Each structure stands twice: as structure tokens, then as C-alpha cells.
Amino acid sequence: MINLILVVMALLLGAIALTAAIKYIPVDSEIRASTVDAVVAQIDVLEKGVNGYLNEVRNPATGSVDLGPTRDTLMDDLSPEYVFAPRAPGNGEWTAGVGAYLGRDAIWVCLNPPKSGWAGSVQAGINDAVQRALPDKATIQADTCGADTNVAEGAYLTYWFAAHQVSYPGTAVEFVDAPNPSESTLYDENRVVRIRLNVDAEIEMNSNQDPAGGVTARIELREPGGSWVTADRWQMEVEQALPALAVTGTTASGEDITGGTETPQGGVRLRRNAALEAVIPAGWEMRTITEVPGNHANVTIGPGQLQRFW
Fold it and tell me: Packing angle between helix 27-57 and helix 120-128, nearest 10 degrees?
């Protein structure tokens, strides 16, 4: 009986110790931490939408972006075509607009408080996000959206996107077929294009008949109404001069031929791979030219890669 009492007392003491060791996290702390995570994640989602919008309104010929007049209704343009407005923490609301920031036109997104104001734990989470998780110069806390000056613990959180920060320099690389020789091609009327084409060349020469030979391949460009100009050129040349051989000895009939000369017989065969590259202004034509004097060589301009730029 005594042993049973001791066992029960030991279990009670263990339960008391375990309860004392448990640390309870206040609800306010959980809300504060989850607000930080939500704000950072939702700005990332909105940034992708702004990205898509900027690519759509960018001038394809110049790369410039006209954001239009200052306004606070840009979310109507962003959603739902480019992004769905996230469900803001603390019953707040995300809005978007256009304004001037750091001397340039830019887009902002803003976390608005509910009419009743933020709960203390949500406001604390917003403060934490600004101070620890978001880029300093891109984030403004103030008493209104689209602000460019911080107000301590402001209820409105504005995050700015400068147009050049979210633009892409060019499209994905495309594979292009070999252009027809000497035939003009217009790749893009509105955007700058960079092209790279493969070149294969082969020379086969006889030392007696072809002492020298070569091949040339080039890309030429022409602006509208202009003349063709060379943008890139590749050339391979071969020169062979085999010296005469001095002869010493006698023939089968005993004739002394010492002091004579004999021209060696032989040939040469070379094969090379190269590439031609050119940056083609918007609206310019391109063509490829190959030059192969005689019939001792062959040069082919093959397929390659192309990328379009703003």
C-alpha cells in the first residue's frame, strides 16, 4: 500500500513539473508573427502582378513605360488580369496606384487598415515587417497610401516598385532556321533583335592548281530606305607554297640527275566552325552573304539563336 502511495505521489510531482515547464505563447504574439509572414508573402504576389502589367504597357520599340497620371485606382488595372488582390491580414485591404517616388514615376501597393483601425497585435506585426523583413527604401509607413515620407508606426504601409527594377531586358532565346542566302529578312519591326548564326566552312585544295584560297561569310543590315552595311564578317584563308625539292642521284639507266629539282605533289583539306553575330535595330532588314572564289571550297550559314530586346 505504501508503494502504491509513493507511485501516485511521484506521478503527481511529475505532472506538476511538466506543467511548470510548458511555455504558453500568447495569442497576440502569434498574430504579430503571422502578420509579418502574410505581409511579406502578399507583397511578393503583388510584385509578380506589377511585373506582368509593366511588361504589357512597355513600349516595344523604346522600352519606356508610360504609367499615366498619378492615381490610386491602379488595382482596377492589375486585378484580375495580372493578379488577384490577396486577402489582407487584420481585415485590411490592398490598393495600388501610381505616383512619383525618388524622382521618377513608380507604382505602389498599399496595405490599408480597416475603418476601426488595426488591432494592436496586427499593427505590431506591420511594424516588425517594415523594420526587419522588407527593403528599407522601398517601404514607407505613413498616414496615407502612396506616401514618400515615413511616419512612426503609421497605419498605412506603402511598397514602391520602380519601373526599371521589375523590367526584363529581353525575351527567352528562340531557335531560328537558317536564312535563305542573300535573301532579306525582317525579324521584328518594333524591337531590337540579337542573332547568332552557325557557320561551317571547308576548303580542299591541290598544291599545284590552287596555291591559295579562302571563304567569306557575313551578316549585312539595312535600315528602311538605306543601303546594306556589314554587321559581322568571318573569313578563312589558306596559302600554301611548297618549295621545290633538290634531287640527288641517278636514274635507272644511269643518268646523273644530281642538281635537278622536283615539284612536290599533294593537297590540303581544312574544316572550320564559327559563328556570326549581329544586333539588329528595330525595323531593319538582315541578310547573309557567302563568297567562295573558285570551286575548291564550301561555306554554309546554318541555323542559330535569336533574342528580342525592349
Answer: 50
